[in-house]
């Protein structure tokens, strides 16, 4: 084709009358990709809806394929716009998802060309989609012929949405943004917490199988599935929790004899931390399915906590020594683990949780004993959800003081400690070993508190 572009309107390829076997693993991945932007679902939720009935092997392949395509969502869209004669306009969302999947399979997972092309084209077997088989076939065969050029195009395009990259450039600088982009292209490692943090337990997983982290956790050098199938994994005395998520609770130290409430607790990583540190914990969340996961984690690890299903803003209890609020937020710091997160937000919706965070902070204050501690956490890179929330909260609540984190307690990530004594954890702080999720945390000492309404 003189223009070097493939048709973006239906055409019938040679051999289109004979449709091959549908690969249901690839079909599940394609439908999940379509649902993420269309229905606003997380990739995890969309995939679980589509992957029912797949064998463990097919499920693992489909999950890897979908996650890789989602990590390269922006570059793949740009590439499709460039190579299709009329761009992506008019191409149905499912067909676009299939094409993104095929390009991922062929160029990023390096599946043999015949298998990648034929398996992708065979996903378009319905009356509505079969008309696009020729277009998808042509694009993928061209991608195979011009593999180096296509891969260079994918690498040249940023994986973080432009509007969000501009925010992060302004807030965190060019070096951090470059590290974010690099980390977003790779599968994030899995960090484990062990119920028994003794040296013996760490040694059982260290070396070739895992790397010890400064928090006492271990970072797996193999996949989670492989670990779960091992004798150590089968023992069940562990849970998955990112290094960055682990640090704020770990910095509190020994909590034996303390009472604690974990608000917005599910799926329970911080609840498990509090229980292991010796606290008497009540976990509160309004999501039944997520609380089921929390209860399963408690049962598997042998740790104990009371579990309450209720809206956090409606929850009341006698004041406790410690209240942890891991508030709803943009989740912009989790792009390593949730590559769809930046694409589910826009400049309009990014900070939509800010007012809810303020209300939750005020409500949580009434659950803390005088002299007790309130810990505020968000998995966000946005100052409006972190530093600005703290400033506003302190202005509203004169009986609350910011209590700085101790430098020794956060020595595993020393750059995270801000001059004000809060924690600002950037993914780039551990980039040499896979990075961390981005978080903000502030600890408050509570004086006399208002009565709950």
Structure summary:
By secondary structure, this protein is α/β, with parallel strands linked by helices. The chain has 18 helices and 12 strands.
What radius of gyration results from the CA coordinates?
A: 24 Å
CATH superfamily of the largest domain: Vaccinia Virus protein VP39
Query: What sequence of helices (H) and strands (E) makes up the elements?
Result: HHHHHHHHHHEHEEHHEHEHEHEEHEHEEE
Roughly how many Å apart are the termini?
70 Å
Number of helices: 18
| Percentage of residues in DSSP E strands | 5-15%
Low-confidence stretches: 9-18
The overall average pLDDT, rounded, is 91
In the CATH hierarchy, what is the class of the largest domain?
A: Alpha Beta
CATH topology grouping of the largest domain: Rossmann fold
Strand tally: 12
Write structural notes for this entry.
The structure is a single chain. The chain has 453 residues and is of the alpha/beta class. It has three domains: 24-156, N-utilizing Substance Protein B Homolog, Chain A (Orthogonal Bundle); 191-240; 243-446, Rossmann fold. Helix content is 42%, strand content 13%. It has helices at 24-39, 43-50, 56-71, 73-83, 93-108, 113-121, 133-145, 147-156, 162-172, 174-184, 199-205, 224-228, 231-235, 243-250, 269-276, 288-301, 354-365, 387-396, and strands at 191-194, 210-212, 218-220, 238-240, 259-263, 280-285, 306-309, 320-326, 368-378, 400-402, 423-425, 439-446. Strands 5, 6, 7, 8, 9, 10, 11 and 12 form an eight-stranded mixed β-sheet that branches. A four-stranded antiparallel β-sheet has the order 2-3-1-4, sandwiched between helices. Helix 4 crosses helix 5 and helix 4 crosses helix 8.
